[in-house]
Amino acid sequence: MLHIVVCIKQVPDSREIRIDPNTNTLIRQGVPSIVNFYDLHGLEEALRIKDQHGARITVVTMGPPPAEKSLKECISLGADEAVLVTDRKFAGADTLATSYVLAKTIQKVEQEWGPADIVFCGKQTLDGDTGQVGPGIACRLNLEQLTYVGKVVRVDPEARRVRVHRYLEDGIEVVETSMPVLITALKELNEVRRASLPGMIRAARYKPVTWTTADFPDIEVSKIGLKGSPTIVAKTWVPEARKIEGEMISGDTPEQIAEQLTAKLWESDLAEKLGWI
Protein backbone atom coordinates (compact mmCIF):
# COMPACT_ATOMS: atom_id res chain seq x y z
CA MET A 1 0.00 0.00 0.00
CA LEU A 2 1.20 3.50 -0.82
CA HIS A 3 2.26 5.81 1.97
CA ILE A 4 1.59 9.49 1.24
CA VAL A 5 2.84 12.31 3.46
CA VAL A 6 1.15 15.70 3.20
CA CYS A 7 2.87 18.79 4.61
CA ILE A 8 0.49 21.54 5.71
CA LYS A 9 0.78 24.87 7.49
CA GLN A 10 -1.67 26.78 9.62
CA VAL A 11 -1.62 30.37 8.36
CA PRO A 12 -3.45 33.62 9.13
CA ASP A 13 -6.54 34.16 6.99
CA SER A 14 -5.20 36.30 4.13
CA ARG A 15 -8.32 38.46 4.23
CA GLU A 16 -7.41 39.56 7.77
CA ILE A 17 -3.63 39.99 7.48
CA ARG A 18 -2.07 43.24 8.72
CA ILE A 19 1.57 44.29 9.09
CA ASP A 20 3.08 45.94 12.15
CA PRO A 21 4.77 49.11 10.82
CA ASN A 22 7.30 49.09 13.65
CA THR A 23 8.52 45.49 13.44
CA ASN A 24 7.69 44.76 9.77
CA THR A 25 6.12 41.46 10.83
CA LEU A 26 2.66 39.99 10.43
CA ILE A 27 0.17 40.78 13.19
CA ARG A 28 -1.20 37.36 14.11
CA GLN A 29 -3.02 38.24 17.33
CA GLY A 30 -6.76 38.27 16.80
CA VAL A 31 -6.44 36.97 13.23
CA PRO A 32 -8.29 33.70 12.48
CA SER A 33 -6.12 30.81 11.30
CA ILE A 34 -6.85 28.42 8.44
CA VAL A 35 -5.13 25.54 6.67
CA ASN A 36 -2.95 26.93 3.90
CA PHE A 37 -5.08 27.01 0.75
CA TYR A 38 -2.63 25.19 -1.54
CA ASP A 39 -1.86 22.53 1.06
CA LEU A 40 -5.53 21.50 1.08
CA HIS A 41 -5.30 20.79 -2.65
CA GLY A 42 -2.28 18.59 -1.96
CA LEU A 43 -4.28 16.71 0.68
CA GLU A 44 -7.24 16.35 -1.67
CA GLU A 45 -5.03 14.79 -4.35
CA ALA A 46 -3.61 12.38 -1.78
CA LEU A 47 -7.17 11.41 -0.83
CA ARG A 48 -8.06 10.83 -4.49
CA ILE A 49 -5.06 8.54 -4.88
CA LYS A 50 -6.16 6.74 -1.72
CA ASP A 51 -9.69 6.31 -3.13
CA GLN A 52 -8.30 4.87 -6.37
CA HIS A 53 -5.35 2.76 -5.28
CA GLY A 54 -5.49 2.54 -1.50
CA ALA A 55 -2.98 4.46 0.60
CA ARG A 56 -2.05 5.53 4.08
CA ILE A 57 -2.00 9.33 4.49
CA THR A 58 0.05 11.04 7.17
CA VAL A 59 -0.27 14.80 7.59
CA VAL A 60 2.54 16.75 9.23
CA THR A 61 2.97 20.36 10.30
CA MET A 62 5.43 22.46 12.26
CA GLY A 63 3.83 25.17 14.35
CA PRO A 64 2.49 26.24 17.74
CA PRO A 65 0.11 24.00 19.72
CA PRO A 66 -3.05 25.65 18.24
CA ALA A 67 -2.02 24.18 14.85
CA GLU A 68 -3.59 20.97 16.18
CA LYS A 69 -6.91 22.40 14.95
CA SER A 70 -5.71 22.37 11.34
CA LEU A 71 -4.50 18.79 11.69
CA LYS A 72 -7.90 17.76 12.99
CA GLU A 73 -9.49 19.36 9.92
CA CYS A 74 -7.26 17.18 7.73
CA ILE A 75 -8.32 14.11 9.71
CA SER A 76 -11.97 15.03 9.15
CA LEU A 77 -11.33 15.09 5.39
CA GLY A 78 -9.88 11.57 5.42
CA ALA A 79 -6.22 11.59 6.50
CA ASP A 80 -5.17 8.59 8.62
CA GLU A 81 -2.58 10.09 10.96
CA ALA A 82 -1.43 13.59 11.89
CA VAL A 83 1.82 14.81 13.43
CA LEU A 84 2.41 18.18 15.09
CA VAL A 85 6.03 19.23 15.51
CA THR A 86 6.06 22.00 18.09
CA ASP A 87 8.73 23.55 20.28
CA ARG A 88 9.75 27.07 21.22
CA LYS A 89 13.15 26.28 19.70
CA PHE A 90 11.50 26.05 16.25
CA ALA A 91 10.10 29.61 16.49
CA GLY A 92 11.27 32.20 13.97
CA ALA A 93 12.18 29.63 11.32
CA ASP A 94 12.60 30.78 7.72
CA THR A 95 12.18 28.46 4.73
CA LEU A 96 15.66 26.95 5.17
CA ALA A 97 15.09 26.00 8.82
CA THR A 98 11.50 24.92 8.13
CA SER A 99 12.48 22.55 5.33
CA TYR A 100 15.18 21.08 7.58
CA VAL A 101 12.73 20.32 10.40
CA LEU A 102 10.06 18.97 8.05
CA ALA A 103 12.61 16.72 6.35
CA LYS A 104 13.62 15.36 9.76
CA THR A 105 9.93 14.90 10.58
CA ILE A 106 9.27 12.92 7.40
CA GLN A 107 12.24 10.67 8.17
CA LYS A 108 10.80 9.98 11.62
CA VAL A 109 7.34 9.40 10.12
CA GLU A 110 8.93 6.80 7.82
CA GLN A 111 10.41 5.06 10.84
CA GLU A 112 6.96 4.91 12.46
CA TRP A 113 4.71 4.08 9.47
CA GLY A 114 6.96 3.03 6.60
CA PRO A 115 8.73 4.76 3.68
CA ALA A 116 6.92 7.64 1.98
CA ASP A 117 6.15 7.07 -1.69
CA ILE A 118 4.71 10.53 -2.38
CA VAL A 119 5.08 13.79 -0.44
CA PHE A 120 2.59 16.58 -1.17
CA CYS A 121 3.14 20.26 -0.37
CA GLY A 122 1.27 23.36 -1.47
CA LYS A 123 3.11 25.40 -4.10
CA GLN A 124 3.52 28.17 -1.49
CA THR A 125 1.99 29.48 1.73
CA LEU A 126 -0.34 32.44 2.01
CA ASP A 127 1.82 34.15 4.63
CA GLY A 128 5.34 33.49 3.33
CA ASP A 129 4.54 33.23 -0.39
CA THR A 130 8.03 31.94 -1.27
CA GLY A 131 7.41 28.47 -2.71
CA GLN A 132 10.75 27.28 -1.27
CA VAL A 133 9.84 24.79 1.45
CA GLY A 134 8.65 21.96 -0.82
CA PRO A 135 11.76 21.96 -3.03
CA GLY A 136 13.90 22.36 0.09
CA ILE A 137 12.42 19.18 1.57
CA ALA A 138 12.97 17.32 -1.71
CA CYS A 139 16.63 18.34 -1.83
CA ARG A 140 17.24 17.31 1.79
CA LEU A 141 15.58 13.91 1.29
CA ASN A 142 16.99 13.37 -2.20
CA LEU A 143 13.51 13.04 -3.71
CA GLU A 144 12.42 13.58 -7.29
CA GLN A 145 10.41 16.81 -7.33
CA LEU A 146 7.50 17.93 -9.50
CA THR A 147 6.59 21.56 -8.82
CA TYR A 148 3.58 23.66 -9.90
CA VAL A 149 1.46 20.60 -10.61
CA GLY A 150 -2.03 21.35 -11.93
CA LYS A 151 -2.99 17.78 -12.82
CA VAL A 152 -1.93 14.30 -11.76
CA VAL A 153 -2.45 12.24 -14.90
CA ARG A 154 -1.51 8.82 -13.62
CA VAL A 155 -0.16 7.09 -10.52
CA ASP A 156 1.09 3.53 -11.07
CA PRO A 157 1.88 1.89 -7.71
CA GLU A 158 3.22 -1.31 -9.32
CA ALA A 159 5.60 0.43 -11.71
CA ARG A 160 6.18 3.14 -9.08
CA ARG A 161 5.70 5.90 -11.65
CA VAL A 162 3.87 9.23 -11.54
CA ARG A 163 2.87 11.39 -14.51
CA VAL A 164 1.73 15.00 -14.06
CA HIS A 165 1.07 18.28 -15.84
CA ARG A 166 3.22 21.17 -14.65
CA TYR A 167 1.60 24.56 -15.25
CA LEU A 168 4.31 26.99 -16.36
CA GLU A 169 4.15 30.58 -17.60
CA ASP A 170 4.70 29.57 -21.22
CA GLY A 171 2.60 26.40 -21.30
CA ILE A 172 1.98 22.98 -19.78
CA GLU A 173 4.80 20.50 -19.30
CA VAL A 174 4.03 16.77 -19.15
CA VAL A 175 6.50 15.01 -16.86
CA GLU A 176 6.80 11.45 -15.63
CA THR A 177 9.14 10.28 -12.90
CA SER A 178 9.65 7.52 -10.37
CA MET A 179 8.71 7.31 -6.72
CA PRO A 180 9.56 8.48 -4.14
CA VAL A 181 8.57 11.92 -5.35
CA LEU A 182 7.60 15.30 -3.90
CA ILE A 183 4.77 17.22 -5.59
CA THR A 184 3.81 20.85 -5.00
CA ALA A 185 0.13 21.51 -5.68
CA LEU A 186 -1.65 24.33 -7.49
CA LYS A 187 -5.30 25.24 -6.91
CA GLU A 188 -6.09 23.97 -10.41
CA LEU A 189 -5.19 20.44 -9.29
CA ASN A 190 -8.65 19.62 -7.91
CA GLU A 191 -11.64 20.77 -5.91
CA VAL A 192 -11.31 20.16 -2.18
CA ARG A 193 -14.02 17.92 -0.74
CA ARG A 194 -16.14 18.62 2.30
CA ALA A 195 -15.70 16.63 5.48
CA SER A 196 -18.15 13.80 6.05
CA LEU A 197 -20.06 13.39 9.31
CA PRO A 198 -18.08 10.24 10.27
CA GLY A 199 -14.89 12.14 9.42
CA MET A 200 -15.84 15.05 11.67
CA ILE A 201 -16.70 12.67 14.52
CA ARG A 202 -13.35 10.91 14.17
CA ALA A 203 -11.51 14.26 14.05
CA ALA A 204 -13.25 15.44 17.23
CA ARG A 205 -11.97 12.35 19.06
CA TYR A 206 -8.55 12.26 17.40
CA LYS A 207 -5.41 13.44 19.20
CA PRO A 208 -2.50 14.25 16.83
CA VAL A 209 0.92 12.83 17.57
CA THR A 210 3.09 15.59 19.06
CA TRP A 211 6.87 15.71 18.72
CA THR A 212 9.32 18.24 20.20
CA THR A 213 13.08 18.66 19.82
CA ALA A 214 13.46 15.93 22.46
CA ASP A 215 12.05 13.44 19.94
CA PHE A 216 14.83 14.26 17.46
CA PRO A 217 18.06 13.28 19.21
CA ASP A 218 20.18 13.88 16.09
CA ILE A 219 18.74 17.30 15.20
CA GLU A 220 21.26 20.14 14.88
CA VAL A 221 20.08 23.04 17.03
CA SER A 222 22.10 25.50 14.95
CA LYS A 223 19.86 24.69 11.96
CA ILE A 224 16.48 25.30 13.55
CA GLY A 225 14.44 28.30 14.61
CA LEU A 226 15.82 31.80 14.47
CA LYS A 227 19.44 30.61 14.81
CA GLY A 228 19.13 28.47 11.71
CA SER A 229 17.40 31.17 9.66
CA PRO A 230 19.75 33.40 7.62
CA THR A 231 16.87 35.23 5.94
CA ILE A 232 16.58 38.90 6.92
CA VAL A 233 13.43 40.94 6.17
CA ALA A 234 14.80 44.36 5.26
CA LYS A 235 11.48 46.09 4.73
CA THR A 236 7.76 45.43 4.34
CA TRP A 237 4.97 47.82 3.56
CA VAL A 238 1.30 47.98 2.74
CA PRO A 239 0.50 49.68 -0.60
CA GLU A 240 -1.42 52.91 -0.15
CA ALA A 241 -4.99 52.91 -1.36
CA ARG A 242 -5.37 54.88 -4.58
CA LYS A 243 -8.28 57.26 -5.02
CA ILE A 244 -9.93 56.93 -8.41
CA GLU A 245 -12.44 59.50 -9.61
CA GLY A 246 -15.63 58.16 -11.12
CA GLU A 247 -18.82 59.41 -12.72
CA MET A 248 -22.24 57.80 -12.63
CA ILE A 249 -24.06 57.58 -15.97
CA SER A 250 -27.82 57.08 -15.76
CA GLY A 251 -30.67 56.89 -18.22
CA ASP A 252 -34.16 55.53 -18.77
CA THR A 253 -33.05 52.81 -21.20
CA PRO A 254 -29.85 50.87 -21.92
CA GLU A 255 -29.62 52.64 -25.26
CA GLN A 256 -29.58 56.08 -23.60
CA ILE A 257 -26.87 54.96 -21.18
CA ALA A 258 -24.83 53.55 -24.07
CA GLU A 259 -25.12 56.81 -26.01
CA GLN A 260 -23.94 58.86 -23.01
CA LEU A 261 -21.05 56.47 -22.39
CA THR A 262 -19.98 56.65 -26.04
CA ALA A 263 -20.10 60.43 -25.97
CA LYS A 264 -17.94 60.51 -22.84
CA LEU A 265 -15.37 58.21 -24.43
CA TRP A 266 -15.20 60.41 -27.54
CA GLU A 267 -14.61 63.46 -25.35
CA SER A 268 -11.73 61.81 -23.52
CA ASP A 269 -8.48 60.35 -24.82
CA LEU A 270 -9.87 56.84 -24.32
CA ALA A 271 -11.31 56.87 -27.84
CA GLU A 272 -7.79 57.06 -29.24
CA LYS A 273 -6.51 54.39 -26.83
CA LEU A 274 -9.33 52.08 -27.85
CA GLY A 275 -8.43 52.51 -31.50
CA TRP A 276 -11.56 54.41 -32.49
CA ILE A 277 -9.52 57.20 -34.01
In short:
By secondary structure, the protein is an alpha/beta fold. It is 30% helix and 24% strand. It starts with a strand and ends with a helix.
Q: Can you walk me through this structure?
A:
The chain is 30% helix and 24% strand. The protein has 277 residues and is α/β, with parallel strands linked by helices. It has two domains: 2-223, Rossmann fold (3-Layer(aba) Sandwich), CATH 3.40.50; 245-277, no CATH class. The strands form two sheets. A nine-stranded mixed β-sheet has the order 9-8-7-10-6-1-4-5-11, sandwiched between helices. A two-stranded antiparallel ribbon has the order 2-3. The relative contact order is 0.16. The mean pLDDT is 89. Residues 23-220 form the Electron transfer flavoprotein alpha/beta-subunit N-terminal domain. This is Electron transfer flavoprotein small subunit. InterPro entries: ET-Flavoprotein_bsu_CS, ETF_a/b_N, ETF_b, ETF_beta_N, Rossmann-like_a/b/a_fold. GO terms for molecular function: electron transfer activity.
Shape summary: globular
What is the alpha-carbon Rg in Å?
24 Å
What is the total number of structural domains?
Answer: 2
Helix/strand-derived category reads: alpha/beta
Mean pLDDT across the residues is 89
The termini sit apart by 67 Å
Looking at the overall shape, the CATH architecture of the largest domain is: 3-Layer(aba) Sandwich
Family: Belongs to the ETF beta-subunit/FixA family.
InterPro entries: ET-Flavoprotein_bsu_CS (IPR000049), ETF_a/b_N (IPR014730), ETF_b (IPR012255), ETF_beta_N (IPR033948), Rossmann-like_a/b/a_fold (IPR014729)
GO molecular function: electron transfer activity
Organism: Lihuaxuella thermophila
